[in-house]
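Review box. Two proteins, two foldings.
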Amino acid sequence: MTMKHVGRLHVITDEVLQERFTHAELASAAAAGGADVIQYREKRPISTREMIRVAGLMGLACQDLGASLLIDDRVDVASAVGATAVHLGREDLPPEVARQILGPDAIIGGTANSVEEAVRVAGQPVDYLGVGPVFGTTSKGDRAAPMLGLERFAEICAAVDKPVIGIGNITVDRVADVLAAGAYGVAVLSAVVCQDDPKASCRAFANEISRVLQ
């Protein structure tokens, strides 16, 4: 069975930690910089209609540059704009329900912060696990899960048979260690979207991933 294109470099967009660029502008910059997955994450209380509008613009940017659009949490928004990927947290729709809505070809990600949780989530109809925060996080404040560290992260990677995307304060100089610990890829937010040149910052990650995987 051929594994779906989960992507090695996920860039998460944000308009709270920075206000210079819109979600769509970040999607375009990250895709141009080599990200193969752009994740639309919106934690502000905006309307579903506005989320669909923004996701539609992001989808156009991704399509033009060959990246995949992934919607965080909101299966309804993904369905509305024809996005083929979602990432689900602990409080979101169960993966089996998301699968019924989006179909067998959709890419569905789950979230885990421990070996036990990872094994449980990997047993559900998900295509990859987002695991972290590997090195802590600055983007979730008091809601953040405990920092894993590389040793515990490696234990999680070894315990599951699904691709693991590492997340949590990952910088370019940490990419090699995260991949060596068993990650399939990495997800980044601040290290790309909060920089003066998101495209160049993303390109540095893409180049490092390529170097490590050679």
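Next protein.
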Amino acid sequence: MVKKEMVAMLLAGGQGSRLGILTKNNAKPAVSFGGKYRIIDFPMSNCINSGVDTVGVLTQYMPLFLNRHIGIGIPWDLDRQSGGVTVLAPHIKGEKGEWYSGTANAIYQNMPYLEEYSPEYVLILAGDHIYKMDYSNMLKFHKKNGCDATIAVLEVDISEASRFGIMNTDENDCIYEFEEKPEHPKNNLASMGIYIFNWKELKAALIEDHDEHSDSDFGKHIIPKMLGEGKTLYAYRFNDYWKDVGTIESYWQANMELIKSLPEFNLYEDLWPIYTDTVKTQPQYCSESSHVKTSLISAGCEIYGTVINSVLSPGVIVHAGAHVRDSIIMDDCIIHENVTIERCIVDRNSEIGSGTVIGVGDNIPNEKYPHIYDTGITVIGENSTVPADITIGKNCVIYGEALLSDFVGNALPSGAGIVKDGDKI
């Protein structure tokens, strides 16, 4: 193998349980975003735009769709003989296999992959954030300071700082203390989960920590360990758009931000394109009877009804008389005649029967999972069917083929759910 200055390790094995039914059968990084994209497209595109041409993608939870999407890395120009993209799944070593049990443990288990390239630096990334970052600038910062590790940080509102890992720094942004979700944070420099390590120091830390913690984690173990040993760590300040789309509300909000006249996050920037595995399909079509306003309509969509303030993925059909507002409709969904959908997420390959109304009534949190569905957004899971002439409230969840007999009085009240495959919603 050709020696590489820096290799990226993209952690994409998380379940993303706070996205509820959207990640029932799908890894969070593979969830649709912004119409034609997947969440993982953003860090992958950042890599190639930054000149990082060797990327290991660590998968674990429900990886089938994610693996298909990545393929051999063609959309990101990562189909290379030397380097490129490599999918790294948990595997058998010796007599038994072992799941990734922590962020650092996942890297530890893939040290042979890194050793093949003998890198000077290792870039650790999360596969589930929406942002644009030039990692080459972060590497320059790392080299300039001659440090052992550099941690990207974002200034957050001090009232939200207790939700993050907080870096306490001196006047030169040299880190002297790390606090994991402190009750009383000393500042607002939140870790973004993006790290550059000197490979020599990281390798030693991973090996040593593996003997102490089977669930070795960067935030809980590796970073505090390096600080305790007197290693030099610096905070790299990031001052642009960054979004953790880890909840139903934040995922919905980030999609809605894309449709503003002047979006804070620009998908159309020629100098920093976002690449994805785009299936060749026919152009979008809007009929004479259609009405579309302030929306993202992907290729292959057919619009005969009304779409307002919404994001539609490829292949969606909105029939005549249907009204879709403030909603996200994913790939190949069919919205039949005279349907009304408001503040709703409909996952791929789903079908809504004619005359059905979704998203009305009081904002009552979901009866089983109020911590996931509590902001008025109703979610229809992938490959689901909703019959005709049904009224569905807010914070509802439907998964599978819902039948007329599943509803009382042709209605599903706010906070209720119908899940045909297991109990997880």
